[in-house]
Structures are given as C-alpha cells and as structure tokens.
Amino acid sequence: MRVKVNALILISVFALSSCKTQVLPENTVQTDIKQVVNSADVVLVDVRIPEQYAEATAKDAVNIPLAELSNNIDSLKGKKVVVFCNKGIQADQAVEILKKKGVDVYDGTTWKNVKAIQEEK
Questions:
Q1: Do 95 and 77 contact (CB within 8 A), yes or no?
Q2: C-alpha distances in angstroms, 9 versus 16, 30, 52?
Q3: CA distance linking residue 80 with residue 63, whole number of Å
Q4: Domains, the chain, ranges and CATH?
Q5: Which end of the chain has fewer surrounding CB within 10 Å, N or C?
C-alpha cells in the first residue's frame, strides 16, 4: 500500500512540475483595439474579397483578400496592422499568417466593429 501511495505522489509531482506557466511575448499582450484602430500609424486591412470590400468597409481600409495576403507581407512589415472581415473567421486566419511572418498585427474582427470604433471618436 505504501508503495502505491509513494508512486501516486511521485506521479503527481511530475505531472504538476510539467505544467509551467507560459510567459507570453510582449507583442501578444492584450492591447486596446480602440487605441490601435484610431492611431495615426495604423494600416487597416479588409481581408474579404474585392466585391465585399466594394459594398462597404471601414474608413481608410485597404483591401488585401486573405488568399493574396501572403503575397503582400513585405508591404505590411514594420507597420501596425489591423485585419478584419465579415464575421472574424478570415481575420483570425490573417492574424495567424501575419504573426508567423513577424508583422505587428491586431484582430479587428469585423469591418462593422472597426467602423463603429472609428465613429466613436
């Protein structure tokens, strides 16, 4: 019985010691999206297809469809970028692509969200 208890304690110690708190890099710290959207040096990127972009988008947004995003990484490097789409799904994908390439990127979720933030000023 004592061996089983010791084995259980030993297993618990190993399991708990393997659960380390992950320190997030500084660029992943939560940032107030309102401040980013309204900053003077931000590039707003609508990742929807051109037809959707033409219907409506946020003020001063550029259209780089998600399918073409990888071809435009160099033009976004060194800039603060907010990406958005219709429902946030493509924006999430765009964030992952851009983060992997070292772009300072923020998720604006939807064009309506970004537009509402701009109109709050």
A1: no
A2: 10, 38, 59
A3: 16
A4: 24-120 (3.40.250.10)
A5: N
Report pTM.
0.74
Please check whether residue 44 is in contact with residue 37, taking contact to mean a CB–CB distance below 8 angstroms.
yes
Q: 38, 33, 51, 42: which is closest to 88 by C-alpha?
A: 33
Tokens 């390439």 appear where? Answer: 101
For residue 109, give the DSSP letter.
E
Divide the 121 residues of the chain into consecutive groups of 10 and give the mean pLDDT of each group: 62 50 42 91 97 97 97 95 97 97 96 95 66
- State the Cα–Cα distance between residues 43 and 61, nearest whole angstrom: 7
